[in-house]
C-alpha cells in the first residue's frame, strides 16, 4: 500500500476513534498544482471534541506511522484545527465553520470519498 494512502487511512482511524462525523477524503492526486495529495475533512460537535479529534489523529499517526505534522493551526480556540502532514492536510471543524468554508467543494474535479459515521 502506498505510504500516503496508509497515512490517510491512519488519520481516518484517529478521527473515528473519537467519533468524528462526516469524514470526507478529497483526492487531489490528479490535479496539477494541488498543495497536497489528499485532504481529510471532518467535524466535531464542539470545540472540545474538535480538540480531542486533533489529539487523536496526532497520537494515532505518531504511533502507527511514526510521523508528526509539519505544522498545526487553530488549537487556540479549536473551532477549526488544521494538521499539515505534507502530502495530507487534515481539517477538523465545528459544523458551522465547515458549512461556511465548504472545502470539499472548492475542487470540482477532485474525487470525494465519504466515510460512513460510526455511532
N- to C-terminal distance:
28 Å
Shape: globular
Mean pLDDT over the residues: 95
Structural class estimated from helices and strands: alpha+beta
* Largest β sheet strand count, sense and barrel closure: 6 strands, mixed
Major β-sheet strand ordering: 3-4-5-2-1-6
Compose a concise summary of this entry:
34% of the residues lie in helices and 27% in strands.
Q: How would you describe the overall organization of this protein?
A:
The model has no long low-confidence stretch (mean pLDDT 95). The chain has 3 helices and 6 strands; from the N terminus they run H-E-E-H-E-E-E-H-E. Helix 1 crosses helix 2 (47-65). With 119 residues, it is of the alpha+beta class. 34% of the residues lie in helices and 27% in strands. The protein has a 6-stranded mixed β-sheet with strand order 3-4-5-2-1-6.
Which labels suit this protein?
single chain; 119 residues; alpha+beta; six-stranded mixed beta sheet; globular
Reconstruct the topology from this structure.
Layout: H1 3-17, E1 21-27, E2 38-43, H2 47-65, E3 71-73, E4 80-84, E5 88-93, H3 95-101, E6 111-115
Parallel strand pairs: 2-5
Antiparallel strand pairs: 1-2, 1-6, 3-4, 4-5
Helix pairs in contact: 1-2
